[in-house]
Amino acid sequence: MIDGSLSLMYNNTFRGHNLNICLSSSMRQTQSTASETHYRGFPGGDLVSSNYAAEVYGKPSSSDNTTRLVGALFTSNYTYNNIYLADLTGRIDGSSEFGSDKRWSMFWSTGAGINIHNYDFMKSNELFSMLKFRASYGLTGKTNFSLYSAKDMYQLQTDSWYPTGYGVFLYQMGNPNLKWERKYTLDYGIEIGLWHDKVYLKASAYDERTIDLITDYTIPSSTGFTSYKENMGKVKNTGVELELRMRLYSDRNWLLQLYGSFARNKDTIVEISQAMRDYNKRVEELFSGYNPESSSDSKYAQTYLKYYEGASLTSIYGMKSLGISPTNGKEIYLRRNGDVTDVWSADEWTIIGDTAPKGQGSFGYTLSYKQLSMFASFLYTFGGDAYNNTLVSYVENADIKNDNVDKRVLLDRWQRPGDITTMKDIRDRNVTTGASSRFVQKNNTLQWSSLTMSYNFRPEQLRKLRLSGLRFSFTMNDLFYWSTIRQERGLDYPYSRSFNLTTNIIF
Question: Where in this chain does the entry annotate a coiled-coil region (predicted)?
């Protein structure tokens, strides 16, 4: 990697004012090369040089990946008496990863804040040790795709030899108009410290608008390709984030601290592109051959992402289910016009769930006594949905002729009139069950992510050992996991735990 930068800085402080200005430019080139050749027929185990090999087998291969990024940056920061804060940033970047016609883009941001706790009338206040308001607005960009995704890529056809040498074929379709994904972000919040920071609260809210979203655009396989990178549509994200820390007790020997965090995000599709409309049409065409009396292809059991303005990127689509009829064992569906039917149709798809949680975060504690300390952390999510493909593929649509199956395939089925069950009549097993809200489940989780215990030796305990510091720590990760969705044995990976014993020695 080659990385170079040049900066010019200005700083001035006068009568409580502080001003910092920076102008900089940067250039970066990242290159990775690899080659591979296979040899065989060495006369002895100690003769490992390729010169001793009897032959080269297979085909040698090599790769060379290079990316370049050039940018210029302007930043300025201003403060007055550490009360009023303001900043302004602007930059222009050019990247070789984008299409040849859209490599350059300009970004900027501005922000302001006020430290109310630094006012003179607040300095004698015993309640607030910090009271700060802040807000910012800006435009940022990002790359979130693999190298050369915007370029046509060719590959040597090494399986055949022509009089003029190896041939080449086009194996990746590029997009010379692929441009930066851009995001406008409005962020504002408050920070509060109480009773000499025994309690600290940070609350933030944001509104993000992403335009020229970069994603895979699926195209007919008759073109020789299945997809290429394209800028598609606009998405809005709104959310809140909370952080809380409390020092409940502390003295010369004891310390007890609690912490917690909460975050919620909601995304909404503001505008869909023609590419998104074409994708929706292809999903609908996928089900054009579905026959509710005989179709058994597993593709009809899948849920597929669809794009609609006002909906979410995390929405689950399918047909709303009213359950299994006790009379005949067929599934009863609710059509979009309110009618009831026992015939599944992709034309009646609607939103049946959302994988995004209503909230997620972490909490934990730190407890210490003299040199002994313990730290624990937990993670949680709640309010999200998940489509249980395991129930669909291995229970509802199980192949009882060719596979070993779960006992639920037989025991949880409708068998006779009057049965109250969650699975359809087994005699309908040859017809694939389509995406249905019957398989949408609430996905609430609680995870004990880590527990660390450590002991720090005092300096006087280490004098005889001539050590400056000695610390033992024992960490356990992923101790416990709970979910409202059952983990399927033999299908889901077992929940793994890890243990680490660490010794830090300072001489």
Answer: none
